Amino acid sequence: MKHLLIQPGKLFTRLNTWFGFWVLGLIMVNIPLLYHYLGIKTTIAYLVGYLILVYALWFTSLNFVKGYRFLIIIVFASVAVQIATLTIISPYYELTIDRNEAITYWINAFLSGEYPYAVRTNLGNPISVFPFIHILAFPFTLLGNVGFLETFGYLLLVFSLLLFYKNDVDSRIFTIILLSVSPLLFFEVIGKSDIIVNMSLYAAFIMLLIYMEEHDRGWSVLGGIILGIFLGANLATRIAFWPLFAVPVIYLWKVMDRRIWFSTHVIALTVFAFLVLPFAIWNPHIFFRFAPIGVNSSKLGQSHFSQFFWLLMALGSVLCAGIFARRARDLFVLTLPLVIVIVFSTGVTFFFDLSYLQMIFIVLLFSRQLPQVLQPRGHHRG
User: Fold this and answer.
1) pLDDT in tens, 51-87
2) Number of domains forming the structure of the chain
3) What is the pTM of this model?
């Protein structure tokens, strides 16, 4: 029973302000959705399970849960439950949720020679995402279920967390388990939504920056080309995520050779134009007035004041994150204020979409450590 007792050394090192905020934040972003759909009893049960997980991983010496074998079991179990959810539970909600139709209807219209942004979903909503999401989803539609795209996003996040916390076993196990059982994840799977895919692509992009920075390869021309292609493809997914990618753009301005920086972003804009411009030329009236541009601009509200305030808050968050980042690893935690602004300002000016809490949750998963600019000297941990 000794391994179940609180270890005094661990208790001292864990009980600090940022750790407490981090642990609390990760559970709090899951609570609204859980309470809204499953009620107070399920919410309390989840809270109890979460506290047991925190206790077992952070304050005891249960080493058997910290090996790769246990982690593989957790990931495989989560994938199995996701597949079961897609095939058994998800069909019951197909008439009330339309994010999967925003993908499948677009693909079917395009393959039929119709202008895909003129199509509405089964709920009558316009299609607001850019073409790269549909390109990513196409192989999964061939498999017969576009919902497998969310499982792909989950696995990409698991891989990113493995790399990000390669030197921190406790954080690696904790974040992957928490992601694997997250109500937000399974809500995404049931609704066949693509928010988790957007966030997994963002995480993968930041991990690419970290890899290039930490392996002493510098910011080479080849590295700039790879980053440019990846950045351009990401911009061609969803407008709401543009502010997130503005942060690494500012950071790269500080650390890259100017010529490489410019060539990287010329490549990014070229890739974006290649993916998006054909649809703008095909039918500019629908593209700019209806979807995807028109519907996205309406999310900022009709009031000029609210639009200005949203842009001001987002711009301030982007600039602060980009300027204060001293290393690529800092970009996750420094974008927390930005994703909070995006989620809650959209809720105020348009409608509060509980699935957008996924953005805060996933950024929090990568935010165990304070940014380097706020850490005491000699306390930089990868």
Assistant:
1) 888 887 777 666 656 667 888 999 999 999 999 999 8
2) 1
3) 0.89
pLDDT digits (tens, 9 = 90+) for 138-170: 999 998 888 899 999 999 999 999 999 998 888
The kind and range of the H/E element at 25 are helix 17-28
Cβ-contact 87, 130 below 8 angstroms: no
Distance of alpha carbon 18 from alpha carbon 327, whole angstroms: 19
Q: What is the dihedral of CA 104, 105, 107, 109, to 10 degrees?
A: 160
The radius of gyration of the chain's CA atoms, rounded to the nearest angstrom, is 21
Residue 5 lies inside a defined structural domain of this protein: no
Residue 80 placed within a domain: yes
Assess if residue 3 is contained within a domain: no
- 381 within domain boundaries: no
Q: Which domain holds residue 172?
A: 13-374
Q: What is the pLDDT of residues 175-195, one digit of tens each?
A: 999 999 999 999 888 888 888
Give the Cα separation of 174 and 106 in Å (integer). Answer: 38
- State the Cα–Cα distance between residues 98 and 93, nearest whole angstrom: 9
